[in-house]
Amino acid sequence: MSARYTTRILIPSDQDTYRCAIQALQADDVVAIPTETVYGLAGNAFSDQALDKIYAAKERPAMNPLILHISSAQAQTIQSLAEAEYINAEAIPQAIVEALDRVINAFWPGPLTLVLPRHSRISDRLTGGLDTVALRVPAHPVAQKIISSTFPLAAPSANRSGRISPTSAQAVYDELNGRIPFVIDGDACEVGLESSILAYLDNSLRLLRPGAISLKELRRESGIKILSAQKHPAEVRAPGMLQSHYAPDTPVKLFRNETELLTLLKQQGEKPLGILLLGPPGSHDLIKQLQKPYYNVEVLSAERDLTEAARQLFATLRKLDYTQVELLLAQVPPQDQGLGQAIRDRLLKAAAPKNLFSS
């Protein structure tokens, strides 16, 4: 895609930033904005021209739906979403409506997307032709100010399709320079992973994508049964469901523990490798092995804290991808229902279709 713009990074403290962003959005252009999860590529959700620009800038498949970002004032209850003509609440049983109202009260604004039966005015271009719409209320003050000053925004992650999601303005610039007019710099994203996705599908609530809000938390607040995420969904039912996603240019191979990593290092010989660890290496043998000059080693959290690891994941993957290595070796956390599951999900997709462990 040839360059169409001289992309500028705007600072929220500059009085012209919001004016530039709002004018661009009102002209059916697109602007990269910060959210608490990752940076989003935002455009008028009710303009097919703006939606087409999002798909073009991202080189995104047309069947991959977008998330509709709305203001907190419009998202107090399921009924308020229906009155705003985002969803068809009549298609949702009353018990599910009450459970979703409890979830909305607990987690919006925040890193949670709801996938619900769509209202007839919602464009096929926004939903990828599905009969559902994905909705989120971002917590970041910059995102909320822009939405409140304009209109609901479609805002998928501000990167080329399938690549590592950006968690800083510079990462957006590196991805989309020349493709969009503006990036608003809202500092590094607080969460660092895309939102959890909770969907009403097949007469039940299902967690389609794990994120910062866990299945356990959703079950507790909703008060009803919620089915866990499927490992390999048969079809795209929501944004971020493609099997290969969040991927660096460099091939990725996964390992679970230090024993598997040592085996992989022996297999790879003296190749230049990028190595991504959840925490500091523990064994003397591994510490000694990792000191070799042809390895680039990054640790996500010195304290092995999953919240910090999630926040640093995409930025660190991107950093390793920029180095001259032939292969990235990345450690996945144990399977659980919290942030470990979310990190694991992103790494499995980054490594697809080779997402095999060393054993």
List keywords for this structure.
alpha/beta; 11-stranded mixed sheet; 4-stranded parallel sheet; 15 strands; globular
Descriptive account of the structure:
This protein has 359 residues and is α/β, with parallel strands linked by helices. A hairpin with a 6-residue loop joins strand 2 and strand 3. Strands 1-8-2-3-7-4-6-5-9-10-11 form an eleven-stranded mixed sheet, sandwiched between helices. Strands 12-15-13-14 form a four-stranded parallel sheet. The longest helix is centred in the C-terminal third of the chain and has 17 residues. It has twelve helices and 15 strands. Helix 11 runs parallel beside helix 12. The C terminus is likely disordered. The chain is globular, with a radius of gyration of 20 Å.
The strands making up the biggest β-sheet line up spatially as 1-8-2-3-7-4-6-5-9-10-11
Run of helices and strands: EHEEHEHHEHEHEHEEEHEEHEHEHEH
Helix amount: 25-40%
Radius of gyration: 20 Å
* Dominant shape: globular
Distance between the termini: 41 Å
Q: How would you sum up the major sheet?
A: 11 strands, mixed
The portion of residues forming beta strands comes to 15-25%
Assign the structural class, choosing from mainly alpha, mainly beta, alpha/beta, alpha+beta, or little secondary structure: alpha/beta
> Which residues form runs of ≥5 with pLDDT under 50?
354-359
Count the DSSP helices. 12
Instruction: Tell me the number of strands.
Output: 15
Please tell me the overall pLDDT.
Answer: 92
